[in-house]
Design brief:
The complex is a heterodimer.
Chain A (H helix, E strand, L loop, with lengths): L24 H13 L3 E5 L3 H5 L12 E3 L5 H15 L5 E6 L1 H6 L2 H9 L5 E6 L34 H6 L5 E6 L3 H13 L4 E6 L3 H4 L6 H10 L6 E4 L2 E4 L8 H5 L10 H14 L5
Parallel strand pairs in A: 1-2, 1-3, 3-4, 4-6, 5-6
Antiparallel strand pairs in A: 5-7, 7-8
Helix pairs in contact in A: 1-7, 3-5
Chain B lengths: L15 H5 L8 E5 L9 H4 L5 E4 L2 E4 L9 H5 L3 E5 L9
Antiparallel strand pairs in B: 1-4, 2-3
Classes of the chains: A alpha/beta, B alpha+beta.
Amino acid sequence: MTIDFKNLPKQELFGQGNVGCKGCGAAIAGRQAMKVLGERTIITIPASCMATLGGNNTKTTWKTPFYHTLFECAPAISSGVRAALEIQGIKDVNVVSWGGDAGSADIGFQSLTGAAERQEHIIHVLYDNEMYMNTGGQTGSQTPLYAITSNGALGKKVHKKNMLAIMEAHGIDYVASANIAYPEDLMNKFKKAASKKGFSYIHILAPCHRGWGIKPEETIEVARKAVECGMWELFEVDEGKRTRTYEPSFIPVADYLKAQGRFKNLTAEQTAELQKSVNKYYGKGE
Amino acid sequence: MAVKNLPIVPSGDPGALVEAANYATWRIFRPVITESAKVNPIVTLYCPDGAITVDESGAEVNYKLCKGCGICAKESEGIQMVPEYTGPKGVF
């Protein structure tokens, strides 16, 4: 880790006094991103934990303008905000839509794919807790295989939808995956995305200790294990050029899965099957 | 009706929650800095609440913001989680 802590902005644009659970992964992701995006940022948030985290009534934790959009249209509203800024000739503002996995991959997907297709000059962030956590942890398209959720006691039967590949296929300027346990990597990716003139998409894995069945203090540890075992790849696609930004150490996937309550019913065969598919993906044999 | 005659909608200052926050009642354990020099500055980015600051003068925890999740104590040396309640146990 080589973060220049001396030059890191001291100002807390988001996070202090947020009303999230203790050990909230989404709040960590937001804080790390806002250190890079800075004061000149306009945020739009669809219905998600992030929307409630900001506070209510006259109390807010955001120190930048933020707009709580309807569930399905955060990137569309960001597009409008950008158009309004352009017509006024304001050029130094980052427009960011910050959705959860439902607000980006499921309900919000139509406006996301529309904005990506139009190559709007915005950043879309998907903070991924792999469940619909704001409504009590239901199964969504980003829930991984075999994970137990509040409405799926037997575990999910199908694979997680590969949002990164879908967004890469749009041919947008910048696609990246990030993880809250690697702040340097995450902040570099936000820096790059902010410098682009077109659409950028960043997918952050942000564990939710309530839904994942872990202790609050293990949030960072489990996020790190997801990368180290190879199940969450850290990479970026910068104008078509794909690079892996972090080489994992390949701990057994069982270390990552067994740490979580949502995988407690996983059999030895299922773990071996997941290990096999990870090995195959990284070209390490069967 | 002219715009100037419209009622004023109550609105908060940006970051109004920061002054109002008091999460002392959320905590079961409280992080206490035992060795300031050993604290890894990375915890300032791992803390979800922005409650911990690390600079030249040392590390400091803002107990109004801290919810006691324990991430800092797990990720860095020099921080210990201490129970908030130390009175009699097993009454019920």
